[in-house]
Amino acid sequence: MNKETIITILFVLVSMNMYTQQRLIVRDSLTQKPIAYTSVWFGNEAGRYTNESGMIEIPKGTKQIQLSHICYETKIITKVTADLHTIFLVPKSINLNEVAISAKTPKRIKTTEVGLMKSKTQTKHKGANGFEMALFIPYDNTWAETPYIHSILASLDYSTHYLVFTEIKTPIYATLRFDLRQPDAKTGAPKDESLIGGGIILPSSQKLGKDGICLICPIPFPQTGVFVVVEWITTAQVSESCNLVPSLNMTLDEKENRTWNKKTFRGMDWMQEQDEPVYQNEEAQVFYKGRIPSAKLGLKISK
Predict the structure, then answer these.
(1) What's the CA angle centered on 256, arms 254 and 261, to 5 degrees?
(2) DSSP secondary structure string, 31-43?
(3) Which of 25, 219, 196 is nearest to 105 (CA)?
(4) Kind and range of the H or E run holding 15
(5) Separation of first and last alpha carbons in the chain
C-alpha cells in the first residue's frame, strides 16, 4: 500500500473509534464539581470508572448504566441517548454521631495494631477493576476506653511475575481507595456509608508503606466493630477479570473468616469470602485444605 492509502485507513479507523464511544461527565448536583472514580456499570459484566476529571466514555449501544460512589446516591440511567452529556449525582445525607471525627492531636501517640497484618502470608488475591475486599475487625470489650483509629494498614504485593497477561502486555497499577465502614445490622456486610468522608485515595504512582494510610483526623473505634475496605480502581479500558497490581496478601490461619468481597462490575453485592464458588471445587479444596483465605488488613489504634 502507498502512503496515501495508509493515511486514509488510519483516518477511517480513528473516525470509527470516535463514534463508537460517548463521552459523559459526572458531577456533584450541589457543587457542580466533577466526581472522580465513580463506578459506572454497563451491565453484562462490564464497567469502568470516571477519571480524575469525572469523565468516562460509554461504549456505543449501551442502553442502561448504573452510577455509584460511596459519597453519593446510586443512580440508574435507563436510556442512554446521544444528547446525554452530563450526569448529576446527589450527595448522601449520613449521620455519623457514633463515630464523630475528633480534633484531638496529642503530641505523643502510642499506637497498637489490630487486624491480621502479623498473620502468615499463604496466598494472594489478585487485584481487579471494580473489586473490593473488606476485613471486619470487632470491638474488644476488654478495652477500658474507646480507642481512636489513626491509620489503615494493608499487606500488598507489588510483584508482577505471577500475573497472566491475556488482555495487556504490561502490568497496570491500580489506584486504591481505602475506607472504613460499619457493618449492616441485618446482613453483617459493609454499609454503603463511609466513616471517613468517602475514603482515602492512594494514586497508582505511589506504593503503600508499612505505616499505611494515615487518617487526617482520628476517629473513635465504633462499638459495632468496623470494616477495613480496599477497592481497586483503574480508568484503563480493561475487563473486570484483568489482573491489576498490587495484589492483596492473604492468610489461611484464621479459624473465623471475617473477610468479605464485592464485584461491582459483575453486578454482585457483598458476599462473605467463604461463599465464593471458587473455593467449592475439588482442586481448590485440595489447595486450600478446606481453609478460607482471610485478607491481611488492619488498623493502628491508640488507647
Answers:
(1) 90
(2) T--B-TT-EEEEE
(3) 219
(4) helix 3-19
(5) 74
Whole-structure pTM value: 0.86
Are the beta carbons of 119 and 296 closer than 8 angstroms? yes
Phi and psi for 227 in degrees, rounded to 5? Answer: -95, 135
Return phi, psi of residue 222, to 5°. -60, 135
Residues 133, 248 contacting (CB under 8 angstroms): yes
Can you say whether residue 46 is alpha, beta or left, with left for phi > 0 and alpha for psi between -120 and 50 degrees?
beta
Sorted by sequence, the CB contacts under 8 Å of residue 181 that are 6+ apart come out as: 134, 190, 191, 192, 193, 194, 195, 226, 227, 229
CA quadruple 206, 194, 133, 64: dihedral, nearest 10: -100
Each residue's pLDDT tens digit in the chain (303 positions)? 555 554 555 554 444 444 457 899 999 999 999 999 999 998 877 899 999 999 999 988 888 999 999 999 999 998 888 788 999 999 997 654 444 334 344 456 789 999 999 999 999 998 899 999 999 999 999 999 999 999 999 999 999 876 655 555 688 999 999 999 999 999 999 999 999 999 999 999 999 999 999 999 999 999 999 999 999 999 988 877 788 999 999 999 998 999 999 999 988 899 999 998 888 888 888 888 889 999 999 999 997
Instruction: Give the separation between CA 183 and CA 134, rounded to whole angstroms.
Output: 11
Cell of 205: 504512582
- Kindly state the DSSP code that residue 184 receives in the 8-state scheme: P
Residues 127 and 174: their CA atoms lie apart, in Å, by 8
Phi and psi at 206, nearest 5°, equal -115, 150
> How far is C-alpha 291 from the chain's CA centre?
25
How far apart, in whole angstroms, are the C-alpha atoms of residue 238 and residue 235? 8
Angle at 269 between CA 235 and CA 230, to 5 degrees: 50
Residue 278 is classified by DSSP as G
